Structures are given as C-alpha cells and as structure tokens.
Amino acid sequence: IDFIISDYNMPYLTGTELLHRIRLDRKLRDIPFLMITAEANMEVVAEAAEVDVDAYMTKPFVTAALEQKITELLDQAAHPGQVTLLLRRAQELEEEGKLDEALAAVAKAGASSPTLSRPFREMGRLLLKKNDLPNSLAAFQKATELNRLDVTSYHGMGQIFFQMGRIDKAIDNYSRAMTISPRHAERALDFARLLLQQDKATEASRVMRLAFKINSNDPDMKERLTRFCADHGLHDLTIKASREILKQDPGRAKVLGYLGIALCKKGLFNEGVLTLEKAAAENEPDPELWIALAQAYLAMRMTGRAEKWAARAIRMAPDNEKARAIYDACL
Which domain holds residue 68? Predict the structure, then answer.
C-alpha cells in the first residue's frame, strides 16, 4: 500500500479511528494518509491532528486539487525531512525500551525545527512515561506555546497536574483539550472524573452527554460510558443512555442492571425492580444485583422478597455486610 485516502464519515468507524489503528501498526504507520471531510470545523481538524494525519481536504474540491495533494504527499513520503526521520527513529527506540535514546532523538528533532510543536509534544510524552513530571510539563508547555491547538499537550498537562494533586490546573487543561477536540472518549472520562471529585456533577454530566453523542455508533463504548455514569451516581444520564442502548441491542444484560439500579435510585421502584429481576435472570450470578433488588423491595416494604434476595446474596458472599443488614431488617 503506497497511499490511503479515507473519508471522515464512514458507517462503522470514522476516518480518524481508522488512522489511529493504522498508526499503531508497524508495517502500515508510515503510509501517507489523506483524509476527506465535508466538515471544515476545528473539532474535526483537531481530532485528525491528534492522530498525525498527513493532510486533509474539505469537500467539494476539483480533481486537479486532489491530484496535486496526492503528488505532494507521495513526494514527502519518498523524501522525508530530518524531523520526520528523527521522530521515526525515536519511535523505534521507544519500542525497543530505549527511552533515553528515544528522548535524545526527539531533542535533536526539536533543535532542528524549534518552531514545530510535535517534537516537544513527543518529548513531554516520553518524559511522562519516565515519570519525570516537571520536565514533561515543561515540554508540553513549550508545545502549546508553539501551537495553541496542540490538544494532546493540554491533555498531557492535565494528567501531570492531576498526579501532582493540582486539581484546578488539571481541570483547566482538560477543559482546554475538550474545547479544542471534544471527540475523545478517554479524555471525556478523565475530565468527568475530575469534575465529580470537585462535586461538579452538572458539568460532568454535560461532558458525558457529549461523549455519548460522539460515540453514538459504538455500542461497546456507550456501554462503558453508561457503566461510568452508573458507578458515579449520574442516575438520569444512566437511565437515558441505558434505554437507548437496550433499544438498539436488548441483549446487553449488564446494561439492564445499570438501568434497574438507576431507576431505583431515582425512586422509580416498580419499573426498577422489574428491570432488576430481568437483569438477575439474564446475567451471571451477581450479588450486587441481588443486593440492589433486596434494597428496592425493602424500600417498597415488601420484606418477603427483600429477604429472599438478601439471603441469596449472603449465600454467595457470606461476609457482605450490606446484604446482612438488609436481611436483619426484614426479620
């Protein structure tokens, strides 16, 4: 394969998702990649830049312009510049576990082209991998000084400030990264987690809604996002997302459990226990589901059913204090 042209909008994955997979493949990662998009907005451009797209074109365009762009990229591939060669060598050294040598190659790349942000971004990433937080932070900061849209560096600084315990700074940098490029599920989870730690549930819900919208065609990621919402008490969002997932794929038994628990947390016990009963029947034995059922039935003053589910949980997990407390309350 000498060249790849891909549309951004495709049925099962986006052009950037395809490019991300290609960049992870040693045999394919250096193939020139031209992305075609009808969306000329900053979000798409930033998303493509995060995975090192070689070039992109916005539709509509004339054939001559496409031919010229292909010729330019093929020429660049045939005659790579010094920075490209040094960064490729750094990647190879990193894969061999030679981080110090990789850093030296990246430093040379930065010295040869001091106005490019990518060498400093790579330096920050490698230093972070070595857990050298102060120098990693300095490298990422340099990258953002050179390129205010270097979203990966803002993300990196968010990670570093979080590790340093400087939560406000971490939130600020994650917020900048999300503003520039909101189409990143892992970043959304990290950012929402930080917001929740600061008791900013409304803002966290807003971030998660955006993540659901962006990943609307990825059922596995949607289930993961739903689990996050369920685990962190975002009950309204858990209910909405679970219903959407189950409408598309009724066989996702785990999601039934998330939905049932969230319904009960919101006081919607009648629908909640029916959903949890179904989840308990379709999932592998799960004491947490049984305890949720016991709690719900106890709240409904249906002690016989509460006792039944609490007893089942105790048989599987005899030391579970929550199950024992519910069981004792039923006596």
Answer: 4-78
If asked whether residues 65 and 87 sit together in one domain, one would say: no
Residues 96 and 159 placed together within one structural domain of the fold: yes
17 closest CA partner among 26, 7, 2, 27: 7
pLDDT tens digits, one per residue of 138-195: 999 999 999 998 999 999 999 999 999 898 899 899 989 888 887 788 888 989 998 9
User: Of 20, 46, 78, which one is at a domain's C-terminal end?
Assistant: 78
> 71 exposed, middle or buried (CB, 10 Å; 0-12, 13-18, 19+)?
exposed
Q: What is the pTM of this model?
A: 0.75
Residues 273-319 have pLDDT tens digits of: 999 999 999 988 899 999 999 999 999 999 999 999 999 999 999 99
* 11-35 burial: b if 16+ Cβ within 10 Å, else e: eeebbbbbbeebbeeeeeebbbbbb
